[in-house]
Amino acid sequence: MEKLIENWALRRSWVTLILSVLLTVVAAWGASQLYFRGDYKVFFGAENPQLRDFESMQATFNKSDNVGIVIAPKQDSVFSERMLELVWRMTEDAWQTPYSSRVDSVTNFQFTEAIDDDLLVAPLLEFTEDLSPEKVEKIRTIALHEPSLVNKLISEDGRVTMINITVQQSDDDQLKTAQSAEIVTFVRDLVARYDLQYAGVEFHLTGVVMVNNGFFEEANKDASTLLPAMFIAVILMLVILLRSFTATTGTVLVIIMSIAVTLGIAGWLGYYLSTATVNVPIIVMTLAVADCVHMGSGVLFNMRNGMHKNDAIAASLALNFKPIFITSATTAIGFLTFNFSDVPPLRDLGNLTAIGVILAWWLSITIFPAFLRVLPLNPPAVAEGKQPMMNRFAEWNIRNRGWLLPVSSAVIVGFTVLMPFNSINDVAIEYFDEDVALRQDADFMQQYLTGFTTVDIALETGEASGVNSPLFLQKLESFSSWLRAQPEVDHVFTLADVYKRLNRNMHNDDNDFYRLPKEQDLAAQYLLLYEMSLPYGLDLNNQLNLNKSAVKLSVTLHENGSKEMVAFEQRVRSWLARYYPEVNVSVAGVGLMFAHIGERNMTSMLWGTAWAIVMISGLLMIALKDVRLGLISLIPNLAPAGIGFGVWAVYNGNVNLGLSVVTSMCLGIVVDDTVHFLSKYKHARQAGKDAEQAVRYAFISVGKALWVTTLVLITGFMLLSLSDFNLNSDLGLLTAAIIAIALLVDFFFLPAFLMLVDKGETYQEVKDAN
Amino acid sequence: MRTNWVRFLMAACLSVSVSAIADDATQQKGFDIAKQRKERDVGWGSSESSNRMILRDAQGNESVRQLRTQALEVQGDGDKSLTIFDQPADVKGTAFLTYSHVDGADEQWLFMPALKRVKRISSNNKSGPFMGSEFAYEDLTSFELDKFRFNWLRDETVNGVALHVIEATPTDRYSGYTKVITWLDTEAFRPLKTEYYDRKGALLKTATMSDYQLHKDKYWRPHRIDMVNHQTGKSTTLAIDSISFDTNLSVDDFTQNSLKRAR
C-alpha cells in the first residue's frame, strides 16, 4: 500500500495532481444539491414518538406554527385609543402574512353578547371609528376578564399585548425553509413600518417560525464569519509552524479539497445542511491540519538534515504513513459513533466529519507529497535545536513525579465525580445565545406577557359529538381548572370557557349563568350557533376535530427546562388517568419534543460512547501491539472527558444535544496524543531503556508536536465556541477544554503513572513497526 | 405540495398578467357571462332537497352531516332558504333560515330546539365555515350579480368542453375572498370549477362541481361539489341525495315562526 502510493504519488506527481483535481471537481459538484433546512423538526427522526404525536395532532387540529408580534407601549397601557388603533391596524395587515391561516389579537377577539333576543358575535373592536374613551374602557374591562386572552394575548396589567399569526407551511423541507424566510421578512417589514409611525412602542417577534428562521440565520452567520476566520487562523498557524510557502499552500489545498469533496459527497448522497452540519468544514479543517503538519514538517526536517527533496518526501511518507492512518481512523471512529444518536443532524455531523477526516488522510499522503514534489521547496534556514524546553520539562517532570501523580490523580477524580451534577436540558429557544435578538424577544415575552412554551393536550372521547356530553364538559372544566392551578402554567386555552360564556349570553348575560350547559343537545346547539357566527380564520377547527369527538386544549408554560416539562407531562397524564381513565389522551408540543429528545439521545449516545471506547482502545492495542499499554492508555484517554464534564457541571451544568456527542468525539481526537506518546515510549523501552529514560525520550521526540497539534485543535474548536448557536458553541468550548485537559493529563499524569506501574520490567525485543 | 405551489404560482402570474389587461370590454364580457348564468337559472320557483356533507381532515378522517334544505326563489331579490339539520343527533331539529339580498347584508336566524328559541346571527360571519366544513356561507348562498365585479379572463377547452373563465371580485367587505375564478361551460353556463383566493391573494380552496342533472328540462344542478382547502389539506363533499322542484312552498314557509315549526 505504501509502495503503491509512493509509486503513484511520487513518480507520477503531475498525473496524480491532475487526476485528483478532476475527481475533486466532479465530487464537489454534488455540493450544489445541498440545501439548508431551517426547521426545528430536523432534530427528530421520523420514528420519534413525540414528533409523531405532534404531527398527528397537527393533522387533526390544523398546524399551529406561529409568529407572535409582542407590542409594548413604553408609557401608557395597551388600552388607549392610540394603542388599540395600532393593534387593530396591525391585525388587519397581519392577514396579509404569507401562508397565514388565522390572526388572533385583542381587537379581533370574537366577543359574544346578548342583545335583545339575539346573539351578537363581533370583534372586540370592529372599526377604529368606534374608538372613544368609553369604548376603550369597555374593551379593557372585557379583555382583562376574558380567560382566553389574559396572560396570552394581553398581560394582566394591560401593558403588553400580542398579535398571534398562525401559518400553514408546506411539508416539503426545502420549501418550508424558504417560506419561513418569506414570512419573517414580511413580518419584520410590517413591524418596521409601525415602528416608524408609532413612537414609544416596543415590538418583539417570537414564535416557532422565528425559531425556524433563526436556525437558518445563525447557520448563515456561522458559515460567513467563523469559516473565513478559521481559514485565516489555519494559514497563520501553518506559516508559523512550517515556515514554507509551498508546504503551507499544499496544506491549504488539501484542506480545501477535503472540505469540497466532503460537501460534494454529502450533496450526492442527498444530505441537507442544518445548524449542526453547517460547521462540518471547520471541524474537518481543524482535524486535517494535523495530518499535513506531520507530513510537511517531516519533509522539511529531512531536507534540513541534508536529504534530497524527493528522498525527504519519501522518507517522511514512510515514517508518517502509519501514525497518520491510526490517528485518522480513531478520529473517524469517534465521529462514526454519532450514528447511535437519535438526532439526525448529529448523525449527519458524525458521518460527514468522518468522511472529511478520511479524505484529509488520503489527500495528505497522496496530493500533498505530489504537490511538494512538483513545486520548489526550501526548508527554513532556522535549525531546530534539541528542544531544550521539552528537555527541561521532561527532567522537571521526572524529578517531581512523587507529588505529580497523587495531585493529578486527585484532580482527575475530584472533577470526574462532579459529572453527575450535569443535567440534560434541551430547550430550542435556549439554543440561541442571549445576544441573539430572537432570544431577547422570547425572554421579553416570558417576562412581561406569557411563557414561550405551549403544550397541546387532546382529549378523545371515542364517540362522535362526545365533547358536548355534560359529563365530559364537567371533566374538561375541572381539568382546565386543575391545569390553571399548576405553578408553571401561564395560560390555558379551553373550550370550557366558550361554553360558559355562551350559556351566560343565552341567559341575557346573567353572570349566574356563567357555567356549563347541563344537557348535551343544548351544549351542541350553543356551539353550533357560535360556530355559525365566526368569520373566516377564527373558527374552532384548531380546538375541535371534525366529528367533535375530541377537543384540544393549549397550555402555555413559563417553565422550559427538559426535566420540568417532562414532569409536567407526567402530572397531566396521571391526573387524567386517575380522574378520566376512559378518555384517550395525547400530549404534544415543540417544547415537549425537545424535553424528551435529550434523554432519548443521551441513552443511545451512551451506547455510542461505549462502542467508541471499545473500538478505539482495540485499535490502539493493535497499533501499539501491546495490550498492557493499551489498557494503561484508557486512563489518559477517558480522564479528559471526565474532568471536562466535571468542570462543565461547575461552569454551566446543562447538557444539550451538542454535548451528548462530545465524549465519543474527544476520545477519537485525544487518543492521538496518547498514541504518539506511548509509541515513542515503547520504542525506547524496547531499545532497553527503563521507564524514566523512555519518558524522557518520548517527551523530547513528540512533546512539541503534541502541544502544537493541540494548539491547532483548540483554536479550531474555540472558534466554534464563538457561534451564537449554543449547540455548536457549547460543543466547541467543551471539546477545546477536553483537548487541552488531555494534553495536561498526558504531560503531568501519564509519565508519572508509567514510571509507577511500568517499573523494572524489560520489554521483549520486538521489531518496531513504527 | 410542490406541484400545488407551482400551480399556485402559475395561477398567480396568470391572474396578474390578466388583470393587467382588464379593460371595459373584458369586464363587460365577464358580466355578460355571469348574467347568462343567472338568467339560465330563473323561474325554478322552489325546491326541497336532502343533502349530505362529508367532512375530511388532513389525515383522511371523515365525518358526515345530514341536512334538508327548502329554497324559494324570490323575484327581484336574493333567494330564501331554510335548512334543517338531521345529523349529528345532538343538533337534530336545529333549523337555519337565510334571506339573501341583492343589496345589503343577508339575514340569518337559527332555531335551537333545546332552547326553543330563534336567534339572529350577525351577518359578518359570511366568510366563516358552514357547520365546520370547508364551505363558507358565501359559497352556498344564492348567486347575485350585484355582489361582484366581473372580468372575463379567457376561454379554454378542457377535456373537450369549451369553457369561459371569469373572475369575480366580491364587493362586500365581509367577504373572505379577494377574488373567485369560475370555469363555466359555454353551452349551459354551468360552473364546473371555482377557485377561491383568500385575503392575501393566495389560492385557498377549489370547488369542483360534478354529477350535473337536469331538472324540469331546464335547470341544471350539480349533485356533487367537492371543496378542497389547499392550505390545510381538509376537504368537504356536498352531495344532493334527492331534489324536487314540485313543492308547495310559499313565503309563509320561510319566516321566523315557520322556523320553529320546521321538522
UniProtKB/TrEMBL annotation, chain A:
Alphabetic keyword roster: Cell membrane, Membrane, Transmembrane, Transmembrane helix
List localization entries.
Cell membrane
Q: Name one Pfam family in it.
A: MMPL
**Membrane topology for this entry?**
Multi-pass membrane protein
Signal sequence span per UniProt? none
Tell me where the transmembrane regions lie. Answer: 226-245, 252-274, 280-301, 313-340, 352-372, 604-624, 631-651, 657-678, 698-720, 732-757
| Occurrences of domain SSD (ranges) | 252-374, 629-756
**What PROSITE patterns is this protein classified in?**
SSD (PS50156)
What PANTHER family is this protein classified in? MEMBRANE PROTEIN MJ1562-RELATED, MEMBRANE PROTEIN YDFJ
What is the protein's given name?
A: RND family transporter
Instruction: State the organism of origin.
Output: Pseudobowmanella zhangzhouensis
From TrEMBL, chain B:
Instruction: Give the source's domain of life in one word.
Output: Bacteria
| Span of domain Uncharacterized protein TP-0789 | 78-261
- What is any Pfam family matched here? LolA_like
Q: Which InterPro entries does the record cross-reference, listed alphabetically?
A: Sporulation_related, TP_0789-like
Keywords in UniProt for this one? Lipoprotein, Signal
Keyword Transcription regulation listed? The answer is no
- Signal peptide span: 1-22
Enumerate the PANTHER family for this protein. Answer: SPORULATION PROTEIN YDCC (PTHR37507:SF2)
The protein's name is Outer membrane lipoprotein-sorting protein
Source species: Pseudobowmanella zhangzhouensis
